[in-house]
Every structure is written in C-alpha cells, then in structure tokens.
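Look over this today:
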Amino acid sequence: MFSCKVRPFLALRSGAAEYLGQFRSLTIGAARLEKKQAELEEAEDADELPVTFVDDVESVEAREERIDGLRNKSRLLTQHRNMLHDVLPYEQSQSWIHETVKYRRMMLGRYGIEGSRTDPRVCFPTKKEAYERAEYEKVAFPFTLRQMMDANEAAQKARKAATEAREAEIARKLEKLDQWTSDLNAKIEKKEREARAAKERKDRLVEEVRRHFGFKVDPRDERFQEMLAQKEREDRKKVKEAKRKEKEEKMMEKLQKKTAELEAEVDVSSGKGKK
C-alpha cells in the first residue's frame, strides 16, 4: 500500500523536473537571442556613423582591399580574375612583352579601345613597315593576279593536251595489239621450228657419223667429234648453197615479172602510137 502512494509522487516529481528543464532552456535561448539582437543593433549604429569614426587603425583603401580579399573565394590571381571578368589583366606593364606591338594589338582586339586603353593607331603599319611589306610582296609575288590566272590556264591546257596525246597513243597501240600479238606468236613459232630443225639436223648428222664408222662409237671420242664437225661443215655448205639458189630463183622471178611489166607497158605505148 505504501508503494501505491509513492508512485504518483515520483511521477509528479519527474514531470516537474522535466518542466523546469524546458523552462531553463527557453530562458537561456531568450538570453542568447537578446544578446545577438543587441550586437546587431550596435553594428547598425556603427555603420551609420561617419567613415572617419569607423576605424581608427586601418584606412578605407586597406579595408576595401581586405574585403575584396575575403570575397575572392576562388583564390585566383588578380590577372586571372580580370581575364575571367573580361577586364584588362594588368594595370601596368609587367614585362617587355606587354610593350610590344603584337601584344597591344591583341589586347585592343580583345578588350576594345576603352578596355585596353590602347591607341588604335597601333593597328596600322608605319611607313617603314609598309615599305618593307611592299618590297616583300614584290619578291614573293612578282606576278599580277591576271598573269597568274593566265599562266594557270595555259598550264591546264598543256596538261589537257598531254593527256589527250597520251590517250591517243594508247588507243593507237591498242589497235596494233592484235597484230603485235600475232607477230610475236609467229616469231616464237619460227624460233621453235628452227630449234626443232637444228635438233633434227644434229641427230641426222650423228646418225650419219655412226653409219660411217659402221659400229657404235662413243660420241665423246675424238674421231667421232672430228667426223661430226666435218659433216656439220658439209651440211652448212649445202644449206648455204640452197639458200643462194632460193635467192637466185626469187631474183629471177622478180626480174621476169619486172620484164613482163615493162613489155606490157611498151606494148600499150606502141599500140597508142599506131592509133
């Protein structure tokens, strides 16, 4: 029974403790909020004061520079940040390159006249540069545009004529291809015929030598070789004589034909004279 009376008391006690904790947290939060608000009011009052009373230690320029440094979260260099924002990278020349004509022309083309703070006359050549350029063009390009066009046209015509001549030559040779092929085949056949005839003649002479001795003789024997050489000489004489006779017969045929033609012409002329 005692425990039944104590339990409600303990529950009431724990609830009171929880309530006191929440009250204490709210009190602390309110105090902190009041302190923060007071700081903000003091900061606003400080901003409303004249600039001469804001900071007695650092100047306005130093303060602005410090604020700009705090704003630069990218940690880029000044020239790089300027390029990022399309501003001239350097306020003052940092190298001899920045004084060259090429660099100044490049800055003028990129940032304009006001942005680059460059005299636009730097883009035009000087008298010396214009003279040197004219002299260079005289040497590098000695011909006028019309002369170069005429030369190009003449070269094209020459190439076209050469191509046409080459094509005509190829066509002409192609027309003779069949004749050349037949001539080549005839030459090959003639060579083969001559080779067969020479072999047959050699075999015939060897057989004649063997018949001359009347017994089987080694072809490497000196007597066989001498007799074979003698037979070859005799055979060459016979062949030469046969060719001479054939040539004489051909000459006689030509003479007879020529004589017959002359006689026919004489007869025709004499017949005309009688008339």
Remarks:
- The two ends are 189 Å apart (CA to CA).
